[in-house]
Amino acid sequence: MYKGAEKAAGGLQAGRPRRLLVIPLPDGKMVIISLYFKWGELTSKLMDESTLFSLLVDLHKGGERQGPGGSEQTLMALKLSGINPASRLAVADIGCGTGASTRVLAENLVNAHITAVDLFPEFLQVLADSACAVGYSDRVSPLAGSMESLPFDDQSLDLIWSEGAIYNMGFGKGVEAWRRLLRPGGVLAVSEITWLRPDPPDQIRQYWEAEYAEIGTAAEKIAVLEGAGYDLLGHFILPPSCWIENYYQPTEARIDDFLQRHADQPQAQQLIEMERQEAAMYEKWQSVYGYGFYVARKRQVNLRGEK
Ligand SMILES: C[S@@+](CC[C@H](N)C(=O)[O-])C[C@H]1O[C@@H](n2cnc3c(N)ncnc32)[C@H](O)[C@@H]1O
Q1: Which is nearest to 177 in space by CA: 165, 192, 166, 193?
Q2: Is 20 helix (H, G, I), strand (E, B) or coil?
Q3: How far is the CA of 29 from the centre of ligand 1 (A)?
Q4: Which of 14, 64, 107, 279 is found 20 to 30 A from 56 (Cα to Cα)?
Q5: Residue 20's pLDDT is what?
Q6: For the residues 248-259, what does the mean pLDDT come to?
Q7: Which domains does the chain show, CATH number per domain?
């Protein structure tokens, strides 16, 4: 959905948002700026960052998901984990948004306790309300905070789940940092932006390398996991329906109401242009990039001999 949210959510840390900003000029032309620039510089010139993030949250909190994914794919990844659904488990769903994956996990891991972590309390409120409505609230604890400073004890988690969110801290850094939180043999399941071909055309390769240099092929992602002390249990690529039908189309359907709510804010229109750019980009290049879902088990020790 976006990157660089930490500062806006609590002044924790500025990042680099992976967005394009389209700015209408008075003569009717458009300027497209990649948000590769330092967030602070950009927003001080163009849009106050707290405005941008409050608009983003308002646009997305009404969505089932805040990024590409699907319940069927959450279940497929759960199956790859080999976890016995009846076992007592400590689970963290990191960057959970409004809880699309949290609900699937709660429904299927019937003796699990899930800590659902996100930066934005507004998303967690939606998650908490829906957990309450379906009777899972005793097994789901929302936690507002950063994926970069998680409050779990070492080796305290059986399962770490994270759909479409680890890019916020970077795949390599994330899988490395989260490993110590898993008990030996614990499982990590993450979805991550992935090249579907080893030879992406220059135009899209340059865009992604500027926005998120860690984008790589599935083989490269698996090598990172193995190097960080995990054994791969399985992986698959999310189908385009996870992006288009489950994410971009429902977002588009909320846009008219969103623009009406923010009719006095030109930034709302700018944000929508960004959202539409992102959707159009995926539409065009869907055979070249997508999300890979990677499921891996923590090895007893990593390459440095650490547990
Ligand atoms: C693309 S959305 C995915 C949300 C959800 N997992 C889903 O698939 O619908 C990324 C999520 O990560 C959250 N996020 C961004 N930076 C974060 C951080 N540093 N720590 C925790 N959550 C973060 C955002 O608020 C957002 O909910």
Answers
A1: 166
A2: strand
A3: 33
A4: 107
A5: 40
A6: 98
A7: 71-240+290-298 (3.40.50.150)
User: 89 and 185 in contact (C-beta within 8 Å)?
Assistant: no
Tens of pLDDT, residue by residue over 149-162, are 999 999 999 999 99
Cα atoms in the 13 Å half-sphere on the side-chain side of 184 = 6
DSSP for residue 143? E
Gap from CA of 79 to ligand 1 centroid (Å): 23
For ligand 1, atom 13, the nearest C-alpha belongs to: 95
pLDDT digits (tens, 9 = 90+) for 3-53: 555 554 543 333 333 444 443 434 443 333 333 333 333 444 456 778 888
- Tens digits of residue pLDDT in 162-177: 999 999 999 999 999 9
Q: How far is CA 2 from the centre of its chain?
A: 8
Distance 100 CA to ligand 1 centre (A): 12
Are 83 and 89 within 8 A, CB to CB?
yes
Pocket (CB within 6 angstroms of ligand 1): 1, 5-6, 65-67, 69, 95-97, 100-101, 117-120, 123, 146-148, 163-165, 168
Residues 179-232 have pLDDT tens digits of 999 999 999 999 999 999 999 999 999 999 999 999 999 999 999 999 999 999
**Contact 91/150 with Cβ under 8 angstroms?**
no
